[in-house]
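Q: What changes when zinc ion is included in the input?
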Amino acid sequence: MVRDLASHPGICSINTATLGFQAPIGEVIEAVATAGFGMLAPWRRDTKDQNVALVAKHIRDAGLKLSGYCRSPYIPAATQQEYRANINANKQAIDDAAVLGAPVFVMVVGSLPPGSKDIEGARHQVREACAELLDHGRRQGVKIGLEPLHPVYAADRSCLTLLSEALDWCDRIEGASADPQIGTIIDCYHVWWDPNLARDVARAGQARRIFGFHVCDWLVPTIDVLNDRGMMGDGIIDIPSIRAALEGAGYTGPVEVEIFSAANWWKRPMSETLLTCKRQLSRAT
Ligand code: ZN
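A: The predicted holo structure follows.
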C-alpha cells in the first residue's frame, strides 16, 4: 500500500524550479505554504544575495520544512585550480544547506569540461570530490544526495547516469553503513526508462540510500529535454509504479514535484501551478 498523498500534505514538496523562479523566494515560500504543501526545496539561485538565515526563518515561520537544497555546482574541471574552486563552491553551498535546515544537498555532478573527451576522468574527479564533500557534510549535518540524470545529459550536466552507478559510487566512497550519509536522489524523469530500475530501487532501499524522490512526467513529443518536462499524468511515465517500488523498498521520505517547463507551467501564475501539482500528486503520482 502506498501512502495517500492527499491526506499527507506534510510529505508533499515543491521544488522551487517548478514555479519558474518568477518571484523572490519570500513570495514563493508564502505561495507554497498557502497552497497546503508541507515542504519545499529551494535552489541556490533563490538564496543568492539573500541572508540565508533569514530565508531559513521565513521557511520555518511559514510552517514548512525542506526536502533538500538544489543543487551542486558542477565538479569536473580542466585544471586543478578550477577543480579546487568547484569543490570549495560546493562546500559553501553545503554550509548554506545547513543554515537552511536542509537534510540533504542535491548533487547534479557535471560532466566533461570544455575541450575534454575524457568522461572517465570526469567520473574520477566527481568521486574524489564527493569523498571530501561527504566529510564536510557530516560536520555540517547535511547528507549528500547523488542524482543520476538521464543519459541525454551525459556530455554536459552529468557523467552519472544510472541509479546502479550512483549506488556503486556510494559503496566505494562510504562503504556499507547503518546510517549512510551519501545516497541517491531518484527522479522519475531520469530513471523511468532503465530496465534495471526495480532491481536498483530495491538495492537502494536495502542500503538505506534513497534520500529523495522527484516527480514530473515525460511528454511525447518532448520539444526540449531540459525545459519541456510535464505535469504528473500528462506524459508516459508510470509514476505510481515507481513510487510503489520506492515505498516497497522502505522509502518514507518526501515526494517532491520538480517540473522544468519554460513554455507552459512557468508562464502560469504560481497559484495555478501549485493547485495543479496538488491535484496531480493525488491523482497521478
Ligand atoms: Zn530532480
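Observations recorded in class: Residues 193 and 237 are 9 Å apart (CA to CA).
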